[in-house]
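User: Could you walk me through two proteins back to back? I'd like the raw sequence and the structure tokens for each, with a short line separating them so I can tell where one ends and the next begins.

Assistant: Of course. Protein one, sequence then structure:
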Amino acid sequence: MHLLHVDLQQVSIASLVIALGLLVDDPVVANDAIKRELDQGRPRAIASWLGPTKLARAILYATITNIVAYLPYLLLKGDTGRFLYTLPIVLTCSLVASRVVSMTFVPFLAYYMLAPRKKPVKSLEELRTQGFYGRYYRTCSYLIDHRWKAFGVSLVLVIGGFWIQSHLKPQFFPKDLSYLSYVDLWLPEDASIMSTEEAAKAAEKYLLAALADFGAKHPDKDGKPSQVLRSLTTFVGGGGPRFWFSVEPELSQPNYAQILIEVRDKHLTNQLVDPLQKALMDRLPGVRVDMRQLESGPPVGFPVQIRISGEDTTMLRVLGERVKTMFRSLPNTYRVKDDWGAEIFQARLKINSDKANLAGVTNVDVARSSAAAMNGFVATELREGRLTIPVKVRLRMEERANIGDIENLYVYATEGQLRVPLGQISTIEYDMETEKIARRNHFRTITISCFPAPGVLPSEVTSLLIPKLNEFKKSLPPGYTLAIGGEYEEQVKGFGQMTVIMIVSVLSIFLALVFQFKSAVKPFLVFSALPYGMTGAFAALAIMGSPFGFMAFLGVISLIGVIVSHIIVLFDFIEEKLEEGEDLRSAILDAGIMRLRPVLITVAATVFALIPLAKNGGPL
């Protein structure tokens, strides 16, 4: 990792934990082969190298299949590719190291630490009839003798597993388990920076009160109120510096503030989001409040988004309101909004060109004089150390407090000493205008977004919304388009890329198996076991109540390499028994007995290695 400039971070550490289960596969197989040679009476000096050597080819291709199952993740593009970049690198390096260790260090340790058993070793004939191996042998014999019935039952299980998968809730990436959360405060578009600062101070006060109340309701072991909050940090007029990879700072704008909340226990963050959201919404009228958790994957923004693109702003607003009504009709949505904001009241000067020309002033003179009076113009600059502070000159507040004061302004001509009251050459018109117009791919685009209700996934909202959107699309005027954004868009792109990754992995594994078996048919026998492993994964997700997210998709792809690596070594034993003259039925059953112990050990090691990651490794 040091040579490849891979740092220790969330994904690389998770990759190392995943690798712990895979690393033991090759050494366990090598160690089992050495013990088998010792049981056959060979001395340690011979058994320690003969056992791994016999399985060298099978272990090599098992390692290759695991590597090619992960290496195609380097083909992922965009934020998802950057996020998971270290996963295939760390796992590939770990598997290569495992291969080297299984052929060098394991025989070295076996020579000094393993010894032949003192008790007589059971023969293969005895294993077929006694103990756990006997029950396994009889079960497999029954299934082979009634192969068509067994195949029919297994086919039903596979179909049931994929039916379960179709009913799992889809998810892109879960929320992160972090000490940090944040609040976005949005005032009306024409709000001043002073109003935003007052709203931010009020929000801080309400947050402190709500967190203190939460601490009183959840006391410490000594009965005293728990200290929930560690710090509050507020940014007014724009977002703060990027403090998390998936949070994009907002540009400078006077009607926006952001409050960063840090708690002492990261497990409380998820419990606090909804109560704090409700407290701020109830106590800050006229302010749009968005309480947000950090995302564990690539940035998504608002979880449910609908984008409408076109040319006419009025029509876009009408269409946007129809989509908002559609959102509000759903039972599991709230905090519905758009990114244009409300229209604001505007006063516009309409200049009478004829009167202005008779008075000897131009439109430029009117613009310069009115802007200088109301907004000011830069007269000079004040230097203070390395800072340059512009000095503006404009009318006093009482001289420009009312709209009627604009009519009393004098407009000075650029050439000559002429001046004329602004009210004599212009009139004031009043209108409602859109302050902010967003564009996407050069087209005016309004984005309507919402949050799912607590305990509801964005995919559940989107699934209810799609049929209504399909009907809505039919009524769109010509030249207007609709697209679904948010988590749905990222999920479609991410799962599409993962499908390509799966295809590349399967083809790479197929080529490796063709080279190993020197047959184009036997690899299909290996792949026939994959649906059964996937069925178990889907059933486990359903039992645990977990959604089928991006990381679950990644786990299913990884499962392909693990299953194939076990079957490769099993096939090697079957080929060995066939070469010894056994019939196919006996070769399959005997190979199963010989491979049962190492397979169970490696599967148990992988599962036990992943349990701490599942319990304490965060949402990933």
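----
Protein two, same layout:
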Amino acid sequence: MISAFYHFKKKPKLLKIKSKAFHDLSLSLVIRRDSCHHFCHCSSKADVLIEVLANAGIERIYGITGDSLNSVNDSLRRNGKIAFEHVRHEETAAFAAGAEASLTHKLTVCAGSSGPGNLHLINGLFDCHRNRVPVLAIASHIPQSEVGLNYFQETHPENLFKECSCFCELVSNPKQMPEILFRAMNAAIGNQDVAVIVLPGDVAVMEMEIDELPVWNQPRLPHIVPQHDDIEEMAAHLETGKRITLFCGAGCEGAHDEVVELAKRLQAPVVHAFRGKEWVEWDNPYDVGMTGLLGYTSGYRAIEQCDTLVMLGTDFPYRPFYPENAKVIQVDRDPSALGRRVPLTQGIIGTVKDTLKELLPLVAQRGDTEFIDTVRKAYTKFRGDLDSYAVAEPDGVAIHPQYFVNRLNKLAAEDAIFTFDVGTPVIWTARHLKTNGKRRILGSYNHGSMANAMMHAIGAQNACPNRQVISLSGDGGFTMMMGEMLTLKQLNLPVKIFVFNNEELSFIAMEMKASGYLDYATDFVNPDFGKLAEAAGIKGVSIQNSSEVDEKIMEALNHNGPVIVNVHVDKQELAMPPKIAYQQAKGFSKYLINAILDGRGTELKEMAKTNWMKYKSLY
């Protein structure tokens, strides 16, 4: 049976036309004609789902098709408006969707089939959830009639996804559509979070009759302006502060000028969490770097020595890096973030840009620059020391990763998008990659998942096809999801993957040493990843010596297609925190003793040769 209606000026009428041929094919179409040339068709619940998403401007869905998801995939094929980005693992689908959402600020979509397909999505969706990006996940499910009977691939996805989403609902009846889909989409956008639709395969093929398909209109995020009394109280606290430090996070996106102006009036150093780096570091004469284990001594001291700390859009989780005897004022759009890390003098619900716009007229210009001058002097020294370590080595000596990232930073496009793996690429990105207001830096900031860089890069390149997308991948992370390099080839995405090949989980090895353990079970036996790429039909480049870094970086960046670059970096490279705590010194001393007893004298000699002359000047 075909169900059709024609849309003129009068109310649409539903016309039922029986057709034996179409009945035999089990097809039922609802056709709306808004003009002589425009038609849309919807019949099954899967058709409604795809048509709504297409009308909402969704351009692609990341995923892997199969069994319970096949009807959705077939609706995509027949609809023709949305591309299905076929990746090699559902985890990649979620990471890629998250990266695209982070860059576009629009709703993105991923999908996974029942059982293992859903479970594979979860790690990537946790990353999206913790990065606060709007992603809709379509989790197909086993037939409704089999739920609770220990059916093949049975799970309870409405429970599985609750911890990594703000919305998760099971669709069990065609009459729930499209309203439940609208709820999910609104929740994802409004909360900047993950929303999940659980769609059983037998429900997805159920037929529907809809006179006219409603159109989803994306809601806009609000400007959250605090009460004027709160602004006045904040201004009063700032007026009494003598040594004020601004601590900035991801919530400072779009508020660069307001942050710098506030710092100028207060003569306050600006410290950033990692997620705040791309929003406040550049064109900022009050910037004193990061704090935390990846940070600068200047950033650490600016917070340790302040008497008033102003947290702007940050939920920095590491409590030991907060001051012990300072007033703390926190501004955040999320009320549950207020006071989560440190006791507050004042908590303010508001978006950073809107809050500072209200605050600035109440803040007078200060003349005392002693505090900012002291911290900036420490910043200049630390920054100069870090830059001095980014040096070339003679041929035959492994490349310093700092040197490599320093050169890549200078050679990459000014609007390049960088993704970085959890592990040592985090360190070199945080300390040696420069932002400028045009570049973007994407990572698994709060979830801390390995292997994110290449998966994020897939979504980033789809979102921004005309920009350089550069993945800084660790050898551990790259090999964990190495099959996705075939996705780059299949989707023809010109991502440049730079693999730091030191044949070790080096960040974990450093953690072990700092805790007094001998590093164990952290070594790899790696191939040359450039040659491996060539075998897969992808351009491969290998860099063994510092003298060839510039030439081969440009060879990779100029290639019109995906490239895998094997970068042979020093295995013994250490990264020092901004302050060495007693427990870290004790742990590392214990490691040195254990290493000598274990016969690792040569290894210690190489470590000292690589690091001692560089890092002794930091402290």
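Confidence is low (pLDDT under 50) at residues 1-42.

Let me know if you want the two compared in more detail.
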